[in-house]
Design goal:
heterodimer, A: about 325 residues, alpha/beta, Rossmann fold, eight-stranded mixed sheet, four-stranded antiparallel sheet, 12 strands, about 40% helix, globular, B: about 270 residues, 11 helices, 10 strands
């Protein structure tokens, strides 16, 4: 059930990337939130950005979703450089292609509008449906595609739905635009553990069915392994280890990746009293070693890269 | 279980709604022993937090404790006068909630927040409170000179540790932790909870730990109770609940958690 996605199938696709980041940096005053981030999003594949809060994951998402501009570096969309803001028509085309699902399902739907309204608007704005009956059919199809019953759900208001159902509506809303790229920023972290798998499976399915490029952002590496073919581990604005999910999970090379993996709750390893100081010191030491900027990148597998720790002195 | 610190007996809590009565907690009974880490698992809306609020008598309308007893050292908290309750809350039962970011006052230095609690409950002077606060900061591994900082100057994990430190300053006998690390990332979560396990061992307090993450709970608790629709469907030692869950719902909760392949292997062949 928790198998790592099958890579053999995806590899044969070998499509060209929809979006490519090349050496993206972003500074907020003295804080360097991103220090040279490069990766690409490919149709039908999911890439997971993993790291602690404040490591730059969300800044990345905001730049790709065009809610923020990089300080330097290039962003390519279907091979064309889109780093600088283009014409209104170009921007509209970009935004139609790139949609986002936010973390908080309770804050991202308007409480005074029905679910149908949330879905009809993007359908009409982007000219995907015509007329009243067309809109109703579109809403029904969207709700069904995310596993919700249209008859029970369409007329309801956000407060009448559970968190998991609301997140499904958010996904449907993003799909209404018919995007090529879906950015999901911690889409399950506010949901119960038992509901998370359902949402992950839904994301995997729509990725497959609609040949979407999926950027999945999370602090939980177990979750990332579950959904993505590729993983990028970030720390303090740098990519510290990246590559095929299988390689990164089963053969982690960077100390921070190892720390992340060791912190995934394991019911068969109870905490031993007296160990906390050791773990705290260990985690702090790894953070200290991982923080400095470093240009040294080592290729350790066909698609598996590790950044050499910089000079922490 | 003769040496139980807290005994919950046939507790029922209802929510009085326009549409009628919703039974959030139905006839729930469990004990928490002295120095025991007891976990309550279950999804949201299953009544876990309602129990936490009932124990501290913070349940407010429309919640209504319909019946049962909550005995702390044999004294029924539900029938205690409000004034007597003041000497129980924080003094004997501490609370750590999910959103630590919101439970510290953003306008007060952390030192003043220690004083607030210590002065109110023990009448401690500024000097005494400062000394106690320094001791607590050392305990949770935050540099003492940061006591004069404001909450916004700390990370989320540190703020959660500060809340735990304030809680511990009064040496309570029971600490209720309601999803204490859900908003934090996994490394910080482990840092904090390893510390809780350590402090529990050295200070001997009891913990009621509430979370929906069974894997995490199994790493920390001695015994686990599983809630479903307001009822406690299974209670047992960690080993029993994790290796041989009796109730169907417990099994479902276990299998619902995405885990790493390495952990999964062990699930299939329990040692």
């Amino acid at each position: 059930m928790n198998a790592i996605p099958d890579l053999t199938q995806a590899k044969t696709v070998n499509a060209s990337p929809v979006i490519a980041l090349d050496g993206i940096t972003r500074s907020f005053g003295l804080v360097q939130a991103l220090r040279g981030v490069s990766f690409s999003l490919v149709p039908g594949r999911a890439l997971a950005l993993v790291g602690e809060s404040g490591c730059g994951k969300t800044t990345c998402a905001r730049i790709i979703a065009r809610m923020d501009q990089p300080t330097s570096g290039d962003m390519l969309f279907r091979g064309a450089n889109v780093t600088a803001t283009g014409s209104a028509a170009q921007e509209r085309a970009y935004r139609r292609a790139v949609q986002m699902v936010f973390q908080d399902p309770f804050a991202s739907l308007n409480p005074v509008f029905s679910i149908a309204h949330h879905l009809v608007r993007p359908l009409k704005l982007h000219g995907h449906v015509k007329g009243r009956s067309g809109a109703a059919d579109g809403v029904d199809a969207l709700l069904e595609s995310v596993g919700l019953d249209p008859i029970l759900t369409a007329h309801k208001f956000p407060h009448e739905l559970s968190g998991g159902q609301r997140q499904r509506v958010n996904i449907a809303r993003a799909l209404a635009v018919q995007p090529e790229v879906l950015i999901a920023d911690e889409p399950t972290s506010m949901l119960d553990v038992s509901i998370r798998l359902g949402i992950l499976e839904l994301l995997s399915r729509i990725k497959r069915e609609r040949n979407l490029a999926l950027l999945y952002i999370t602090h939980d590496i177990a979750m990332a392994a579950h959904v993505a073919e590729e993983i990028v581990v970030m720390f303090a604005g740098q990519m510290v280890e990246w590559g095929d999910t299988n390689a990164v999970i089963t053969d982690p090379r960077h100390p921070y990746t190892k720390l992340l993996l060791s912190a995934v709750p394991d019911p068969y390893q109870p905490f031993v009293p007296g160990e906390s100081a050791r773990f705290l010191a260990h985690a702090e030491e790894i953070r200290r070693l991982s923080r400095p900027a470093s240009d040294g990148v080592e290729k350790v597998g066909p698609n598996h890269f590790v950044r050499q720790p910089g000079d922490a002195g | 279980m003769s040496d139980a610190l807290l005994q919950v007996r046939n507790l029922s809590v209802d929510y009085l709604l326009d549409k009628g009565v919703f039974n959030a907690v139905k006839d729930v009974s469990f004990d928490i022993g002295r120095g025991e880490l007891f976990g309550l698992a279950g999804e949201s809306g299953r009544g876990k937090s309602t129990i936490a609020y009932a124990i501290t008598r913070l349940a407010k309308p429309p919640a209504w404790v319909a019946g049962g007893e909550i005995l702390l050292d044999g004294q029924d908290l539900l029938r205690m006068p409000e004034r007597a309750l003041q000497s129980v809350r924080w003094r004997r039962i501490g609370m750590v909630f999910q959103s630590a970011m919101n439970s510290l006052n953003p306008l007060m230095r952390v030192e003043a927040q220690f004083y607030d609690v210590l002065h109110r409950h023990t009448g401690a002077s500024r000097e005494k409170s400062r000394a106690r606060a320094e001791e607590m900061f050392r305990l949770v591994g935050i540099p003492v000179d940061r006591l004069s900082n404001y909450p916004y100057q700390f990370s989320g994990g540190m703020r959660q540790r500060i809340v735990i430190a304030i809680c511990l300053a009064l040496s309570p006998e029971l600490i209720i932790m309601d999803e204490p690390t859900t908003a934090l990332d996994v490394v910080v979560q482990r840092e904090i909870l390893e510390q809780v396990v350590d402090l529990q061992k050295s200070h001997g307090f009891s913990v009621l730990f509430i979370t929906h993450d069974l894997h995490l709970m199994a790493q920390i608790c001695h015994r686990i109770g599983v809630m479903l629709k307001g009822e406690l469907v299974e209670v047992g030692e960690v080993r029993q609940v994790s290796r041989a869950p009796v109730h169907d719902y417990t099994r479902r909760l276990w299998s619902a958690i995405p885990s790493l392949p390495s952990i999964e292997h062990r699930e299939e062949s329990p040692a």
